[in-house]
Amino acid sequence: MEAISSHESGPDGMAVDEWLLPGAALERFEPPAGMMLAAAAEDKRGRYGFRVATLGFLIKPGCSSEVLRKPDIWDLPGSAPWLLGLVNLRSNLVPIFDLRRLFDLPPRDGSAAQLVLVFDQGEKAVGLLIDDFPKPLFDMNRLPGLPQLPAELQAHVRNGYAKDNTVWLEFDHETFFDELARSGK
What is the CA radius of gyration of the chain? Predict the structure, then answer.
């Protein structure tokens, strides 16, 4: 059934029984010349990037995230030095990691603001210490290959992009933290 059947008139004076159902109307849609469609728009849409020491990371599109400033991080006795502890975020315990310690990167400047980027929500939430607030990045150039990365990170970076002499890594935080949890490192 393509049309809605009724004896009412619409705002344009057409009989409602001449209207198409939304799905049928969309199938007939022809975009105007020069209009950018969603697939093309996605290539131009910006991403957010954050830094940890010399590494630049991109937040996955569609991933919910938030930044916490100087949260109280509760230690987990006996945990690895790169697992800093837990943050209570809206009654969810969120593990907080320090990639500098995990990848043996230079230590953080003591005067730097302590910022935590939390990925996802609820039971899936996980946090990282980051160097500064995430920033929007547009018109990045995809790299033909990836630079040398820490071994633990290699399987979780799909692509690299260049913007303003900085390499930004397409980071899959979900697979990274799943593997980190399984390895018990």
Answer: 23
pLDDT at 41 over 70: no
Report domain extents, the chain.
48-183
Give SS3 for 19. Answer: coil
Residue 119 and residue 113 in contact, taking contact as beta carbons nearer than 8 Å: no
Taking the C-alpha atoms of residue 174 and residue 30, their distance in angstroms, rounded to an integer, is 38
Cβ-defined contacts of 135-142 (< 8 Å, 24+): 135/48, 135/49, 135/50, 136/46, 136/47, 136/48, 137/46, 137/47, 137/48, 137/49, 137/58, 137/161, 137/163, 137/168, 138/44, 138/46, 139/44, 139/163, 140/47, 140/168
- 52 with 105: CB under 8 angstroms? yes
Tell me how crowded residue 4 is: count the other CB atoms within 10 A of its CB: 15
Q: pLDDT-based confidence at 110, cuts 50/70/90?
A: low
In terms of CATH, what superfamily is 48-183?
CheA-289, Domain 4 (2.40.50.180)
Distance CA 177, CA 174 (A): 6
Q: How far does CA 134 lie from the centroid of its chain?
A: 10
